[in-house]
Here is the input.
Amino acid sequence: MHPIHQNRRALNATEIVTQLSQLNGSEADGWKLIDGAIERTFRFANYHETMAFVNAMAWIAHREDHHPDAAFGYNRCTLRFNTHDVNGVSVSDFHCAAAINALLAS
Here is the structure.
């Protein structure tokens, strides 16, 4: 587990907007704040690619001991991160989201 997960707290609205901007860069379909969590839907060509992504994401979540809510189907996977023990979005959520983004970086 990364040390960033220690002593975490809920981020305020300004901090979340700043973190989202840094995380998404110029991506129009990046992570968004929805109902108290950061969320993103990833799209794939087929079920095999979707499941490969889900398995890689699960490995990251296990390594970090920080697990998103996930919903997936044939060609898509939606992830939602929030930090239950602080009742909000924390740096842990952005740290894990960035690690998951790196799976698809070209």
